[in-house]
Amino acid sequence: MDKTSILKAFNKRSKNTLMETLDIEYVAIGDDFLTAKMPVNSRVYQPYGQLHGGATAALAESVGSAASNFFIDSETQFINGIQLSINHIKSKRDGVVFATAKNIHKGKSTHLWEVTIVDEEDRLISVAKMTNIVLEIRKK
């Protein structure tokens, strides 16, 4: 599948999910990364009118989980996130944030990702590390 088709497939899979609720869109893909964007507006604010850390964490987990799909056989396996650690560096009140997942470890049963979240001016907003487990699809 070419890169445009892969991005379209990821975005299609996001319909009727938290990713759609938060307007998360997968926008770039490369040999060693996956990037998604999310608008910063009142839908993702905390009570003080700035980007909610939980929304940022949801963005990081979404892109980290999606990226693990490159390394599995989706006919027989699926991904579950088992750990997310995130540090929030800078607040954000409007605009867009971009999360880029880069693989640190690609094992048979676990994947470790570093997810960097920046704004449209490439200022660091948050940094996350995420661990995914590779599970076998059980036949019913």
Computed Rg? 15 Å
If classified by CATH, what would the architecture be?
A: Roll
Count of discrete alpha- or pi-helical segments spanning 4 or more residues:
3
Helix fraction, binned, reads: 10-25%
Please trace the helix and strand order, writing H or E for each element. HHEEHEEEE
The strand line-up of the biggest sheet is 1-2-4-5-6-3
DSSP strand tally = 6
Quick check: average pLDDT? 96
The biggest sheet amounts to: 6 strands, antiparallel
The residue ranges in which pLDDT falls below 50 over 5 or more consecutive positions are none
CATH superfamily: Hotdog Thioesterase
| CATH fold node name | Thiol Ester Dehydrase, Chain A
Defining key terms:
single chain; 140 residues; alpha+beta; Thiol Ester Dehydrase, Chain A; six-stranded antiparallel β-sheet
Concise overview:
This protein has 140 residues and is α+β, with helices and mostly antiparallel strands.
Task: Explain the overall architecture.
This protein has helices at residues 3-13, 18-21, 53-68, and strands at residues 25-29, 33-40, 77-88, 95-106, 110-119, 124-136. It is of the alpha+beta class and 140 residues long. It has a single domain, classed as Thiol Ester Dehydrase, Chain A (Roll). Strands 1-2-4-5-6-3 form a 6-stranded antiparallel sheet. Strand 1 (25-29) and strand 2 (33-40) form a beta hairpin. The model has no long low-confidence stretch (mean pLDDT 96).
